[in-house]
């Protein structure tokens, strides 16, 4: 059997579609199909069920996937040993919640280039979960500790959220002095059915009957609405505390969560991933004071 066949098999299994897997590999779809067909012929079984919606592993394909991942991990480990541990090069894709990714990490990406000139960083700061098994990201920052999958997990930092409004809004609408006063104000929050993790359901920690009058699907969008004076919103303290025009309201009310740094078990020997994870951890520890309420 040809290892390239296994490599292409892993790409399709992780991506779930021939076309996108071929694009990611930089080859034609017909070439990819030939490799999969060759592997199926050599193994004497069908590995994928193909439909108009994509390619799904058969029972035999799922069993082979486990073995192929194990072989891949050994090959990566061998390459790391041969190549030495000082070479940090290649591409690392980091998936992150939009608040952390855009407001905190993006302005600090220059640190990675300074430390590792041959390392290319791709940051994907979007409000969604990332599939590490399908290689949507090499490193993921998650809200809450994941409990499924073959993952390496490291607690990155706890953080706090509070109620904020702009001075212009408070001049117009008045200052709430009790949680019940929030019922008489414009409240800004998430689009409920687009909340991608239960950890983000924190609005009722501020008021038991919270209902968002303005709903925005991203933390960055909510923050922009609060800054513009649209109403009162729940903002990350590390995003809001530097804005002199924002007022933190009802300081006895806050929500606390934690960011977790996660990567797939198979990447434990990838020097580029370990170097990026360690530097990210260092950057956060250096500015840990930003993440909790004063």
| Mean pLDDT over the full residue set | 89
The CA-CA distance between the termini, in Å, is 61 Å
Q: What is the name of the CATH class of the largest domain?
A: Alpha Beta
Overall CATH architecture of the largest domain? 3-Layer(aba) Sandwich
Which sheet architecture does the biggest sheet show?
A: 9 strands, mixed
Globally, the shape reads elongated
Fill in the CATH topology of the largest domain: D-Maltodextrin-Binding Protein, domain 2
Strand content: 15-25%
From the alpha carbons, calculate the radius of gyration and give it in angstroms. 23 Å
Instruction: Please identify the structural class as seen in this structure.
Output: alpha/beta
What is the number of domains?
Answer: 3
- Which H/E pattern describes the elements? HHHEEHEHHEEEHEEHEHEEH
Protein name: LysR family transcriptional regulator
Family: Belongs to the LysR transcriptional regulatory family.
Keywords: DNA-binding, Transcription, Transcription regulation
GO molecular function: DNA-binding transcription factor activity; sequence-specific DNA binding
Write the layout of secondary structure elements.
Layout: H1 3-15, H2 18-25, H3 29-43, E1 48-51, E2 54-57, H4 59-83, E3 90-96, H5 98-105, H6 110-115, E4 119-125, E5 139-143, E6 151-166, H7 167-173, E7 187-189, E8 214-215, H8 219-227, E9 232-236, H9 237-240, E10 246-249, E11 255-264, H10 271-286
Helix pairs in contact: 1-2, 1-3, 1-4, 2-3
């Amino acid at each position: 059997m040809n290892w390239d066949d296994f490599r292409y098999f892993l790409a399709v299994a992780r991506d779930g579609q021939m076309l996108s897997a071929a694009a990611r590999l930089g080859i034609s779809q017909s070439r990819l199909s030939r490799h999969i067909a060759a592997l199926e012929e050599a193994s004497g079984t069908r590995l994928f069920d193909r439909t108009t919606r994509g390619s799904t592993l058969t029972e035999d394909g799922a069993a082979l996937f486990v073995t192929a991942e194990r072989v891949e991990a050994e090959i990566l480990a061998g390459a790391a040993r041969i190549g030495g541990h000082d070479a940090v090069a290649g591409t690392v894709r980091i998936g992150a919640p939009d608040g952390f990714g855009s407001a905190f990490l993006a302005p600090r990406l220059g640190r990675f280039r300074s430390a590792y000139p041959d390392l290319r960083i791709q940051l994907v700061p979007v409000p969604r979960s990332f599939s590490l098994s399908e290689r949507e990201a090499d490193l993921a920052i998650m809200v809450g500790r994941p409990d499924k999958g073959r993952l390496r997990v490291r607690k990155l930092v706890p953080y706090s959220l509070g109620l904020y409004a702009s001075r212009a809004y408070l001049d117009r609408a008045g200052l709430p002095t009790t949680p019940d006063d929030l019922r008489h104000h414009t409240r800004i929050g998430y689009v409920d059915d687009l909340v991608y993790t239960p950890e983000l359901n924190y609005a009722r920690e501020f008021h038991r009957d919270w209902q968002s009058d303005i709903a925005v699907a991203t933390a960055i969008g909510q923050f922009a609405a609060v800054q513009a004076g649209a109403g009162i919103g729940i903002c990350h303290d590390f995003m809001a505390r530097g804005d002199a025009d924002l007022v933190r309201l009802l300081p006895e009310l806050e929500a606390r969560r934690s960011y977790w740094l996660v990567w797939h078990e198979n990447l434990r020997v990838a020097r580029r991933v370990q170097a990026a994870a360690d530097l990210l951890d260092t950057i956060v520890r250096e500015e840990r004071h930003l993440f909790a309420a004063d």
